[in-house]
Amino acid sequence: MIENIYRPFKVIISEIKQLSENVRLFRLKLDREIDYLPAQFFMLGVWGAGEVPISVASTSGRDPYIEFGIRKVGKVTGALHELKAGEAVWMRGPFGNGFDLKTAHGRDIIFVAGGIGILPLRALINHILMERHFFGRLFLIYGSKRPSEMLFSDEIPLWKEAGIDVILTVDIKDGLWRGYTGVVTEHIDRIKTDFREACSYICGPEVMIENTVKELSLRGMPDHLINISLERRMKCGIGKCGQCYHGIEYICINGPVYTYEDIKKRLALYGA
Amino acid sequence: MIERFILDKNDLSYWLRQIRKNASLIAPVKSLVGDVVFESLEQIHEISLDHPLPPPSVKEFLFPQIETMFEYNGDEIKEIIDEEMRVVVGLRSCDASAIKIIDRFFAGETGSDYDMVHPNRKYKDPYYFSRRQNTVFISMGCNVPGAVCFCYNLGAGPFLDSGFDIQLIDLEDRYLVEADSEKGKGLVRRYDYLFRKVETGDLEDRFEALLSSISKFEKRIDLRETGQKIKNSMPDSFWQWVAERCFECGGCVYVCSLCTCFNIVDYNFSNQSGKRCRIWDTCLFKGFTEMAGRVIPQEKKEQRLKRWWFHKILYYPEQFKTFGCVGCGRCTITCPGHIDIATLSEKIMGWR
Ligand SMILES: Cc1cc2nc3c(=O)[nH]c(=O)nc-3n(C[C@H](O)[C@H](O)[C@H](O)COP(=O)(O)OP(=O)(O)OC[C@H]3O[C@@H](n4cnc5c(N)ncnc54)[C@H](O)[C@@H]3O)c2cc1C
Ligand code: SF4
Ligand code: FES
């Protein structure tokens, strides 16, 4: 018999944390060893509702559990939000390529997150902090719509302590907000680095990605050092269903991480 | 090595009857309303081999339009794997060529450098291959190509040189039976008393039949040239022109021997039990790539059409070293807007 790669396995939720009004962090107890990379994803499912791709938010080799941050937007994410600690989710994975860290060795790194794009970047940041000595200075620009939608306000101080220069910005501020306002690209010049030598990891809504890439490029960052995690609709996660097909790529297996160089060469190939 | 035999035409039905004792036999059958479709054969004499190509392709016997992947009941999960033995007879060279290509697709083996760039591509689809392992295809060479066919230009017909299970070549009073795969050879050897040795005259007749068939193609389509042209010089206005003619029916994709996109959907029987199914889907439908917040990466109809064309004619060759089309002409029969591969290729070559 051929191994059934569509068959999910059952995992028990040990803890659920409300990160914002519609984002919850699910911590799962694994009964098996699973290695994964930041920006890889799993298909998480509830029988009767379906399966959706969700990036890992925890860090392999550091955390003794696996975590996923899930924003409630529809049918399956809604069903996942109904679950309580002690109940089961069904998952399969990890899928996708994940962030490549080798090209970042010895360089300053700029992380740019928009909205729930912080989830895979959290996995990456915690991974990089584990191997801190390989990298140069670290910067994070993290933007959300409102202060109440900022995730990980309890972890950000730890990142600062570990030496990351953190810039927080919101579109719409409220009375208590003491960070910046405006979109992430407005704050790029607050970063003091040689952009021609630094590298970046970007995750967020597509418009934000587009504008950020443009700004970093303008400042001389080479295309192959700009890393982007893309989002597409995915049903299988293994290059069969075609839902994520774009340019010549099945984003689920060849991506979701691409350098700007790849994007120009492989995804916008021939302009289709 | 291909093994060749001769089967007297009168013995075909006997052979099929024997085969049917161990497997379900699928063949082209004329339905009540006159359409020829692939169906499980109840009466051997109902087989209809002298017909134009049946509009639905044979892919549904490996990758059905809808199939159950799992049944669930609370925490109890049952995999539904179809292991029925099937022998499909009467498909054409283009169909057999298409199966060769989708075998590689579902195995995750492109057979190009693409594999090396992406070592984690090799996921094998268990639903497809459990059927594939238990199915033998007996395809027919075409002595008279249909008016819509252009397989010859794509190396997918009218006869095949290799890569099939069994190929039958009609030599008027007898069939030349060619077995290539082990499964195919087994199906001949088991009934070896029906077959006789091939003589030089038989091979000469095969050659004559092939030449005569090749001379009868009405359509000459060069997808390489079409590819060059859509890559370099077709304006947006052309794709808008195409979009105006597309009804978004998805017919071309459903009949296509090579289109394999699907969706996965859960159907509940009760609040604890149900089934997870996969269903054919198409990149030409607007909802295909829709994401949260109603973001649709390929929103405009012309973008979706362009993607389908680019996939088949430019990206397929890069990944699989072959076009995403075998020239069966099914989309020509099906498309109500006349923007099928053959018709539109001709249009593209004449566009200035
Ligand atoms: C690689 C990858 C990683 C992701 N990581 C996370 C994560 O860490 N946390 C998180 O909250 N979300 C993540 N997402 C997005 C998440 O998969 C979608 O929000 C989810 O699939 C929506 O499913 P639903 O059934 O709840 O919505 P639906 O009921 O299906 O519909 C709601 C909307 O979501 C759209 N949709 C359906 N499938 C997808 C899809 N695969 N991606 C985007 N939109 C879709 C629908 O078309 C519709 O517009 C990720 C997506 C990808 C591709
Ligand atoms: S695109 Fe048209 S001609 Fe080509 S294989 Fe599909 S149905 Fe046949
Ligand atoms: S998610 Fe199915 S092909 Fe990528």
How would you describe this structure to a colleague?
The complex is a heterodimer of chains A (272) and B (352). Chain A is of the alpha/beta class and 272 residues long. Helices cover 19% and strands 30% of the residues of chain A. The longest helix of chain A is centred in the middle third of the chain and has 13 residues, at 118-130. Chain B has two domains: 3-215, no CATH class; 223-349, no CATH class. In chain B, the strands form two sheets. In chain B, strands 3-2-6-7-8-9-1-10 form an eight-stranded mixed beta sheet, sandwiched between helices. A four-stranded antiparallel beta sheet of chain B has the order 5-4-12-11, with no helix packed on it. The radius of gyration of chain B is 22 Å and the shape is globular. Chain B starts with a strand and ends with a helix. The model of chain B has no long low-confidence stretch (mean pLDDT 91). The interface between A and B is large, with 40 and 52 residues. The structure holds flavin-adenine dinucleotide, iron/sulfur cluster and FE2/S2 (inorganic) cluster.
Could you provide a short overview of the structure?
The complex is a heterodimer of chains A (272) and B (352). Chain A has 272 residues and is of the alpha/beta class.
Blueprint (SSEs and pairs):
The complex is a heterodimer of chains A (272) and B (352).
Chain A: E1 9-18, E2 23-29, E3 41-46, E4 50-55, E5 66-71, H1 75-82, E6 88-95, E7 109-114, H2 118-130, E8 138-144, H3 156-161, E9 164-170, E10 180-181, E11 199-203, H4 206-218, E12 226-229, E13 245-246, E14 249-250, H5 251-254, E15 257-259, H6 260-267
Chain B: E1 3-8, H1 12-20, E2 24-30, E3 36-40, E4 66-73, E5 76-79, E6 86-92, H2 93-107, H3 114-117, H4 126-133, E7 135-140, E8 166-171, E9 174-179, H5 182-189, E10 195-196, H6 200-215, H7 223-232, H8 236-245, H9 251-255, E11 262-268, E12 273-280, H10 301-320, H11 330-334, H12 341-350
Parallel strand pairs in B: 2-6, 6-7, 7-8
Antiparallel strand pairs in B: 1-9, 1-10, 2-3, 4-5, 4-12, 8-9, 11-12
Bound molecules: flavin-adenine dinucleotide, iron/sulfur cluster and FE2/S2 (inorganic) cluster.
